[in-house]
Amino acid sequence: MKLKFFLFALLGIIATAQAQNTGSVSGKITEKSNNAPISYATVSLKENGKVVSGVNTDDNGDFSFKNIALKSYTIEIQYIGFRKYIGSVLLSENKKTATINVALEEEATQLKGVNIVAERSTIEQKIDRKVVNVGKDLTTAGASASDIMNNIPSVNVDQDGKLSLRGNDNVRVLIDGRPTNIDPAQLLKQIPSTSIKKIELITNPSAKYNPEGMSGIINIILHKNANTGFNGSYSGGITFGETAKYNQSLDLNYKTGKVNFFGNVGQNFGKYHNKGFIQRFDEDITQKIDVLNDNDSYLYKIGMDYLIDDHNTLSIYTNQNKSTGKGYVDTDIDYNNVTGSDISNIFQKSRYWGPDQVGTYNLAYKHIFKKEGHTLDFEANYSDNKETQNASFDTETRKTDNTAGNVFYEDYLKGTRKLSTINVDYVNPLNEKTTLEAGAEARITRTENDYITGNPLLPVADQMSHYTYDTDIYSAYVTFGQKFKKLSYQVGARFESYKVQANLNYGKDKFDDDYITLYPSAYLTYNITEKNTLQLSYSRRVDRPSLEQTKPIREFATPLVTSIGNPDLRPQFTNSVELNYTKTLEKGSFTAGVFVRSINDQISRILYPDPTDTSGQKQIMSFTNFDHNTAYGFEMSFNYKITKWWDIQPSIDFSSIDQSGVIYGFIPEKNEIGPKNKTVTVSAFNGRMNSNFKVNKRLSFLAFGFYRGATDGLQNNSHEMYKMDIGTRYTLLDNKMNLSVRFNDVFNTMKYAFDTENPYPQAGQFKWESQTVYFGLTYNFGGGKIKNLQRKQRDDNTNKGGGGMF
Question: In angstroms, how far is CA 120 from the centroid of its own chain?
Answer without folding.
Answer: 21
